[in-house]
Structures are given as C-alpha cells and as structure tokens.
Design a protein that fits this description.
The complex is a heterodimer.
Chain A: E1 4-13, E2 21-31, E3 36-40, H1 47-54, E4 62-67, E5 70-71, H2 77-87, E6 88-91, H3 103-108, H4 119-128, H5 144-156, E7 162-166, H6 174-189, E8 193-197, H7 201-206, E9 209-214, E10 217-219, H8 225-230, H9 235-251, H10 256-273, H11 275-284
Parallel strand pairs in A: 3-8, 3-9, 6-7, 7-8
Antiparallel strand pairs in A: 1-2, 1-4, 4-5, 9-10
Chain B: H1 2-10, H2 13-19, H3 21-34, H4 36-71, E1 77-82, H5 93-103, E2 107-120, E3 123-131, E4 141-144, E5 154-156, H6 158-164, E6 171-174, E7 177-185, E8 199-202, E9 214-218, H7 222-235, E10 243-247, H8 249-291, H9 293-301, H10 306-342, H11 348-351, H12 354-384, H13 387-391
Parallel strand pairs in B: 3-8, 5-7
Antiparallel strand pairs in B: 1-9, 1-10, 2-3, 2-6, 2-9, 4-7, 5-8, 6-7
The chains are: A alpha/beta, B alpha+beta.
Chain lengths: ~280, ~400
Amino acid sequence: MYSVELRGAVKRYPGGGAEPVVALDDVDFAVRPGEFVAVVGPSGSGKSTLLNVLGLLDDPTEGQRLLVGTDVTSLSVAERTAARKESIGFVFQDFHLLPTLTAVENVALPTAFDPGDATGRAASLLERFGLGDRLTHEPTELSGGQKQRVAIARSLINEPEVLLADEPTGNLDTETGESILAEFERVKSEGVAVIAVTHDPLVEEYADRVVELTDGVLVGGVPDDSVSDDSGSDESMADDSGSDDSGSDDSGSDDSGSDDSGSDESMADDSGSGTSGSTSIPEAK
Amino acid sequence: MSNHGGQTAGSDRRSGWFRGWRPAISMAARNLRRNRVRTVLAVLGVCIGVLAVAALGIFGNVLALGADDAIGDIGTQVVVTPNADAGVDSLSDADVSAIRRAVGEPAVVPLYSDNALVGNAGEQTFATVYGVEEPSLAFEAADGRLPERHRQGAIVGAGIADDLGVGAGDTLEIAGSQVRVVAVLVETQTFSPVAPDDAVFLPESAFSADGYGQVLVVSESGAAARVAADDIREQVNAREDRVELFELAAIVDEINDFFDLLGTFLLGLGAISLVVAGVSILNVMLMSTVERRQEIGVMRAVGVTRRDVLRVLLAEAGLIGAAGAAVGTLLTVLLVAGLVLSTPAVDAALVLDPTNGYYLLLALGFGVGVGLVSGAYPAWKAANERPVEALRS
C-alpha cells in the first residue's frame, strides 16, 4: 500500500479567459512508506499545486486521491483539516514558524488545541534534532537551519505518514541544506514518505526517486517495482530506469491494474527482506 | 499512527470547547503584545467608550434618583374631594366608609378644613385649619408627640411654627381662642395639595361642619396609590360621580418617564463612542489578520481547525474589549469619586446608590461585547480563508 497516491489527478483553475488553466494533467503519482521522492520541474509547472493536492490543502478537479489506501478525494473542510493533522507534515521554504511561539511551542502547534500536553513530545523531537538547548528560544533567536529543524519537528509531532516539503533547502546554504536533507533521511528511515518539491540539485542527490513535472504532466510518478526491488541500494539507477519505464506506463495506461497488484507484492517483498528495518521502527514509536 | 491521532481528535469533544480557550487566549495575548502601540490605542478606544457609557449612565441615574428623592412620596397620596358639579358639597361618614371599603389597606384620613388667622405674641398669619382625628396616620412630628386620637390642642405645620416661633407646649391663638400646641410636624420635602407645612390641625370636635372637606388616602407606594385611586373611582363613583380624585402618581410617572428618556439619551451618547471604539477594533483586527495571513494559513495547514483559529482571533478582540472595559470602569469609578469629593452639592448617597453599579456592569459588558462583535467578522474571515490561498505570498 502506498502512503499517498494520486490516480489520474487533474487540477484545473478557472483562467482569466475562456480556457481554464490546467495545473495537473492526468497525474499518476504514488509514494511508498520510507521513500524520498523529489519533484522537479520549471517554475509554473504545477509543483506547488501537486504538493497542495497531495497535502489536502487543495482538491483535485478530477481523479482520485488516496492516503494510506483510504480514498480522501473529496472530504469536507473539517475532515481535511483532521486528516492533515493526523497524517501529513508540512515543511516550507520560509519555515513558517509562528514568531510569538517558542521553538517547543511551534513544534506542538498542531496539537495546541487538543486535550493533553504535547510539550514533552515536542521537546524530545527537538532534542532528536539537536535543538535540546533551544527549546524556549523564539524563531528570531534561531538560525535558518535551526528554524527548518524546528519546522521538521513540527511536521512530525503527530507522527505522519507523509512529509511534504516545499523547497526545504531553498533558503539555506549548501552545508545547512545538506544537514536538513540528512534529517529527511532519518525521517524516511522511520517509514515516513517524504516528498520534496525542489529546484535544488542537492535534494535530487538525496532522493530515492526524482520525478519531473512539466506543464502539469508528471513523468515517473509511480515507482516501478521490479527495478526498485532489484536495485534498492543504487538510487540513481532506480531513478533512471524508473522514469523510463513509467514513460511507457503512461502510454499504456490500461496496465494500471497490474501495477497495483505489483505494488502489493513489492510491499510484501520489502517487509520480507528488510524485516529489522521496517517493522522495528514503527513499534519503537 | 492514525489511531493515536483519532483518539486525540475524538476524545472529550464536549469539554474541548472550553478547554480550547486556554491556549487560544494565551496565543492571543502574545499576538497582542507584538504590536503594542496598536493594541494600546484600540484598548484606549474601548476605554473611552466604556467611560462614556458608564459615566453618562451614572450621571443620568443620579439625576433621576435626585428627582425621585425631591418629588418624594407625593405619588403615594390620593386626595379625595366632593364633586361640586354633582351637587356634593361635603363628604359624609358614609362616603368615608365607602372609601375605606374601596381602598382596603391604605390609611384613610378624613379632614375638615377651614381658614383662620393664627397668631402668637403679636405676629399673625393666615393658615389652613384642618380637623383631623388620626393625624399619626398621615403625618410625623418633629417636636412633641402626635396623639393616637386627636382630642385637644393644636398640631402645627413646620412653616407656621417657624413663622410664629412656636414649639410644642407653647400657646397659639387660633380664630380668637387660645390653644396649646401639642406637636410640630416634620417639614415636608415635597409638594402635597394638603400643604401641611402651612396648616394647623385641630381635633374634629373644633369643627361644627356636618361633612368632611377632603379625605386623604395614604399608601405605601405610588403603585398602591394608583390602585387605591382606581378602586375609589370604580366603587365610590360607581353610580354617580360623588367624589373627585387628585392623584400625583400619574405626574410622578411622567416625571419618571422623562428621566428614563434622559438616561437612555445619555447612554445613547455614550454608546456612540463605544461604537467608534468597536470600529477601531474592527480595523485593528482586520489589519492584523491581513498581516498574519500566512501565519493563519500555516496554522490551518498543520491541522489547526477553523474553530480554533476563530477562537484565537476572537480572544484577541475580546481581550482588547475586556482590557478597555476594565480600565474604563476603573476610570469611571475614580471620576465619579473625584466628582463627589470635589462637589459638595452632589449627594454622596445618590452616587453610592447600588443602581449605579448596574451602569458600571452594563458598560463593562458592553466593552467586552463590542470587542467580540467587532472581532467576529475579521476572525470569521481569516478562519475561513483557504490555507492554500493564505500560504501563497
């Protein structure tokens, strides 16, 4: 089962003229638990729209959206908010921390209005990201890298299935960016699907899979199972062959049924081969 | 993972509404501290509005109370006189009994009346002379004692006693005969058609008339007096209009109506400044939600519900209103206290009347209410903005 999946997703915006703007054009996209996918493409190609649709901030005009196998295509506003809180973490380019809250309060923000105090969980998350001595600092007292770590900790407070990052390294120098990407590696090793929209070649290096979005058309959106099973260690190989194969998938879209069954097998394979990795960590949480 | 989230969202739905206010108020307080000058100005606006409502409300109330005090109990008396138009020249014992039966509870004091020259040691004055049997039902003595049954001697009104310089125990010459003064009445604060200040009260036996000139009906309250008057009209005047009634309750009602109107008018004046304060809160909240559009978008994106965003913003507006109302109320108390201390003419008892506290509470409530009402629209607008729009900078 995929952590998040789009099937034939279309997003049209009413344009100024007669023709609506097509931001996503029949997009098939799926990310497995513990996979780090980078979405690249020129400005205006629909990357932000893809992220918004994946993150339940926006609904697709057509097509289907699934979150951990559950159809979440059309939810009410309240249901979407609840689903975002439960299952999705956001990391933004501008960090978007609330300036009036301390680091630990920012991390606990998604749960601030819930019964129970999440401060302890927030503090331990920050400690994990090496910010144990910055708990009560306000965002203005933190560096860019520290702010982004706080933002990642915030995205993880509710133990999401999916982490969506919009240019996570865009406002950071290379060294800090690399340390943030290393944090993403750790996050994904805990079974969280990480999807980053980026222009940064560094992000592509760290990603398990790079997909390209051009004028709303996505290439290589669904992982090819036979290849990823064989070459789980070699990421670049998987990327190349994956994108090639999915190109042919797009042309023969009637194969999608067999794709699904394939993905189930690969899940079984994954759990079989990497027993220690994929089963022990969720229990530890 | 999802199990954990489901529990958090599902448990304690009912108490969640109250519980959620604590973090909301804490966040709101910090947001208000971000732009102190703007917050202080908005608070000042509410403060002035509350001050205006409370001070003008209390001012109107003190005026009304003062008037009430001055008019006093004229509204509690009904004076019954024979209806000369119907050929009734005086009221008989039967009439008095009929009146007693009609009114029930209130004291009925029949009076003979005449006019006479009253003098003492060379000084003379013209006075109304009443014959009364039970003066203690309608009057109070300042000097001496009012007898249960008036058998002998004269009871002198305060004005006459003052003019002639007599007190209880002195002797007074009334229409040529010497009469001992048994009591001097308390000076009446109010207007009454009987005018006891300028009257002398003798026993009924001093009069040889065969009917009473008037009957005084003394009630506990203005409302009881009105009921008594109505009863007399219905029962004594059932077949023919034997008596005429003079009641001041209606006039007192009109005076009270006037002061109610005046009070409302003054409150309205105050309310205008409170409305201005409300507009300033509206402005502050709109500005602040526009400035914080992205922040609110982030809150919504990370899973904070619309209701909770609304709560934070309403708490901000409510805090401005509450702070302004509290300071405004305090200032009103100080202002009124200063006024009482510096102006001897103002009766402190009137200012300390508990009804003035009602105006303080009213203004306090208005202040908080204005905050919430003017905060409602910006809060609703910001909470309902789609996060995807808000995040787009």
